[in-house]
Amino acid sequence: RFLLLTGPNMGGKSTYLRQTALISILAQAGSFVPAERARIGLVDRVFTRVGAHDDIRRGRSTFMVEMIEVAHILRRATSRSLVLLDEIGRGTSTFDGLAIAWAVTEDVATRVGSRCLFATHYHQLVGLEAEIEGLVNVHVQVAQSGDELKFLYTVGDGPCDDSYGVQVAALAGLPAHVVERARDLLLFLETQAEGARAGEDGTPLSRGVGQSSLFGWMLPKVVGATPETEDADTEGPAEVPMGARLEPTEAAALARLAEMDPDAMSPREAMDLIYELKGILRGQHEWLEE
What is d(CA 126, CA 113) in angstroms, rounded to the nearest whole number? Predict the structure, then answer.
């Protein structure tokens, strides 16, 4: 009764959701459907949460609009309803979005009991198949040859192994140097995540500093670089406290930023501050000289 749909961008997830709603409505109206044969159950309502848009007239952000629509669905859907959810939780921070998507999945699948298609890039949710009865993983299929992707526009059993976001960004025409940098950072972040799951010290998750530690961790600018955390007098990687990697000039720049009041600054004062910070950091980071 609940299909959790994963797969790459441009793979057809949203189209699959929309066509399911249209086919259900056509069948219930007694019309033709695009199939040689079809067995389609009756529904009392069709609920959709797809697309992304804000509501300027009412002063609602894209995320607020999304949450209002999800709340409407959870309060009004029944076990005879068809619910279509497209990437719930993407408009906020990663952990917040994942938590919301997880909770919504549990509620729809257990309390509400609706027939549901949920398209998501939160691959952490695929493990719910073993926890929630009636929840099944499916994915939109793609063929990969090297860095080339071919979208098959078919749906297969099981979860997708990757979102292929960097490859899709390359297809969209993102500059090659940006794509290459994204690949390096993706590899670094995946390595850090694996280390955290394995219980290694020095990774953002195992250090307990949460999702806000991404830039405090000072991601390496050098291709394939990995922060050195080994302690010569101990076995294994040493624990690295937050901010320990900052040079004195970097600490001074951060201190200057912390004491400023952006709301009280004029555009000219803000520009002067930027040049001041650049002057503090010049020599520490070669790219500032460019």
Answer: 18
Give the count of domains, the chain.
Answer: 3
Sheet of 82-86, strand order? 46-49, 82-86, 115-119, 2-6, 135-145, 148-157
Tens of pLDDT, residue by residue over 56-72, are 888 888 889 889 999 99
Same domain? For 104 and 133 the reply is yes
CA distance 230 to 277: 31
**pLDDT exceeds 50 at position 272:** yes
How crowded is the C-beta side of 10, counted as CA atoms within 13 Å?
14
Written as six digits, the tokens of 258 are: 């912390």
Residue 179's domain comprises: 165-195
53 vs 215 pLDDT, higher one: 53
Q: What is the CATH number of the domain that holds 83?
A: 3.40.50.300
> What pLDDT does residue 25 have?
94
pTM score: 0.65
Are 86 and 146 within one domain? yes
**For tokens 């201190």, what's the residue?**
255
Query: From CA 179, how far away is CA 186, in angstroms rounded?
Result: 10
- The whole-number pLDDT of residue 100 equals 93
The dihedral built from the CA positions of residue 119, 121, 122 and 128, taken in this order, carries a sign that is positive
176 shares a domain with 145: no
